[in-house]
Design goal:
Helix content is 44%, strand content 0%. It has 154 residues and is an all-alpha fold. The chain has one domain (2-150): Cytochrome Bc1 Complex, Chain D, domain 2. It is globular and about 35 Å long.
Length: 154
């Protein structure tokens, strides 16, 4: 029985790992951007984001990891974080350009931040091989997150 459970767990972890590796290869080349003041004014790759896709991505624990640190209004997502500020009202506090920069490269604003730079190439000894030299999120995914976060006015 224990062997069967261990085998099933191993098989499932392999499937999840394969899915994450596949995601890491899909459309995640960084695109150029220009920082002006405290934001990135132009949409990455000129792409318009979809708020519904951004909401789904924010809840995805294997890609964006937003709810690992942040709480999101609505409470539908389980196990939300408390390490970083709540995202409630972020669309009223920050403009589109400011939100975009914070997702793309928070370290530019605060080098001590624990928030990763989601659109920088990941390098280093603690980066999984599937993610080496790739950003965590592609341009379209960043724009989906920006579009969703702009809807959070309260």
């Amino acid at each position: 029985m224990r062997r069967a459970l261990a085998g099933a767990a191993l098989a499932l972890s392999g499937v999840a790992g394969d899915a994450l590796r596949a995601d890491a290869r899909e459309g995640t080349e960084p695109v150029p951007y220009v920082v002006t003041d405290d934001g990135i004014r132009e949409k990455l790759g000129g792409q318009r984001g979809d708020p519904a896709m951004g909401q789904a991505l924010i809840a995805e624990r294997h890609r964006s990891l937003c709810i690992l640190c942040h709480a999101v209004p609505g409470g539908a997502m389980q196990l939300q974080g408390t390490l970083a500020p709540s995202l409630a009202g972020v669309g009223a506090r920050l403009n589109e350009a400011q939100i975009r920069l914070r997702i793309v490269d928070m370290k530019r604003l605060n080098p001590e931040s624990i928030m990763p730079s989601y659109h920088a190439r990941a390098t280093g000894a603690r980066i999984a091989p599937a993610w080496q030299d790739k950003p965590v999120l592609g341009a379209a995914e960043i724009e989906h997150l920006v579009a969703y976060l702009l809807t959070l006015k309260e």
